[in-house]
Amino acid sequence: MNSNPSPSNSSRFEGCTLTGALSVTTEVRDAVSVIHGPAGCTHHNFSLLHATHLANDRLEVPRLLSTRLTENGIIFGGEDALEETVAQALSLSPAAVFVLSTCIVETIGDDVAAICAKSRGVPVIPVPTAGFLGGVFETGVMNALSSVASLAGPADEKTLSANLIGEKNLEYGVEENAAEIVRLLSRLGIAVNLRFVRGIETQDIRRLGSAAVNILREPALRPVGEDLERRLGTPYVDSFPAGLSGTCRFLEEVGRICGIDATAAVEEEQSHQAEMLSRFDDIAGSRVCFRSPHPMLRGDPGAEAICTECAEALNLIVDPDGAAIPLPYPAPVGTAGLRRMLHRWRVLIREKRRG
């Protein structure tokens, strides 16, 4: 929770810390996530995750259990309820159990870490997710990534591969974005080792340390990148690629880290971008005006730079009276993301012409 909720003080990642963490832990498919707190916390997040899965054609039910704390547990402590719920989770034969705390649990002082530390034959891992101490959605994601990474260890040797770290699992288009990264990496002869964390099993986490490079979804995850580099010795690129030139820089940076000359890959991608842009010759020279997608969102210099670069490539004229083009949120990933963005621009420009 942010102590000052004014728009000028709001992060783009504002939201429930617990929800952010669950968007990570529930992607370990053979694990169970235990929410230590009132039933409402679990009900809300189960509904959100289930609806998001259905919207992305994933017929899966999140494996969540709740300690269902009531007034009695809040007054006298909820550790017994947590012990019982962990036992219930273990009866489902999971490969791992993640225990996520809530605001009320941190308030009453239950020792979640001590309960998780007991030997049970299956890893029971605490994930700190009490947002009332200042955490937001982003905090939950980072805490969960670090907690899940505790199941990994240094690899005997590195392979010419990459890990995708911290994909936005609640984002519409997450699979398209991952496919674009796979396409770009293939230009360098690099495969994806692990999507950390999306659609994996507990045993897959052991491979985390074997990649040559970690690719973070966005710069906000740099603390996670630094943590993984410290633990496993894996360097990182701090963001998925965005923009025409940004996509080429991404190839260069990955190539540098992996000891690969990216010159040919960059030239191939630039040719691909030129061919993509040629499909939008019909809107060349149009007048456009870039605007924030929502009044509550602050201006994103990165998004503005991406749009300006594309406008210049298509000889578009930025004019206050031009077609209203919302700045992308979040930024489109790679050349494929720009193509989808330009399709939306075309629709808005045509509507303006007809109007």
TrEMBL record:
Residues 16-285 form the Nitrogenase/oxidoreductase component domain. The keyword Oxidoreductase applies. GO terms for molecular function: nitrogenase activity. Keywords: Nitrogen fixation, Oxidoreductase. Pfam families: Oxidored_nitro. InterPro entries: Nase/OxRdtase_comp1, Nase_comp1_CS, NifE-like. The keyword Oxidoreductase applies. Its EC number is 1.18.6.1. Belongs to the NifD/NifK/NifE/NifN family. This is Nitrogenase molybdenum-iron protein alpha chain.
